[in-house]
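Please check this one:

***
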Amino acid sequence: MQVLQKTQKIVRYQNHHGEIHYGIVKDGIILQLSSNFHELVNKEIKYDGVKVKYSDVKILEPVKPSKVINFGWTYADHAKETGGKSNLVEPVMFLKPLSSLIPDKGEISLPPSHLTNQVELEGEVALVIGKRGKNIKEEDALDYVFGCTILNDVTARDLTKSDPQFTRGKGFDTFGPLGPCIVTGLDPSNLRIVTTLNGNVVQDGNTNQMTLTIPYLISWISQVMTLEPGDILATGSPSGSCPLKSGDVVVVEVERIGKLCNYVQ
């Protein structure tokens, strides 16, 4: 057994035999682990001696959370462009159902036009919780973060504008692309987010532009609900949200994490 290093890129994947493993990515090669998620968050890694090419396996969502918590309007410009309120004292919060999650290279399915006519992208940094927490103090909040990943908070904008709350507009199946990996040891307060649509840059922001700090968000939500290992906290989207259509390719890139690529059908 070895102790997890401070900065590691961790993936969850399925091999050709249908077996699901975690692994450490190094230079396009995955060092396969026998460790489960509980062992990983306790900084214990067990290599089983197998090495596989990253391109030879199916990358899955990096974790199976008990809940996906989303914070909205944490970037002033995005709040303005979507008709929200900027510089909030408290965040807007909503949940995505687990059925919305898809992995890197997964397909975003547009709902029928009688349900929504305005589906948009929102590239975000997401936190993966590493230990159980309730009533967490701000000064201790980052100790509860195992690592960072990427989420595309796909949104039916017409429904979030018409409904009194966001569940329907945020909750369609495939509206939660997540991945491709978890990176440990990052400072989530200063990460650049660049989203491209069919190769054109539509979002270019940084978590240092957030109007509410990440420790505050963790502390705030932990007063409402207990955070469990594996839970996802999506920290909000910078400006540049724009519509999706069938055939589009969306790539959300976050520095030091990687690229989350999804196809729209």
User: Anything to note?
Assistant: The first strand starts at residue 2 and ends at 3. The chain has five helices and 21 strands.
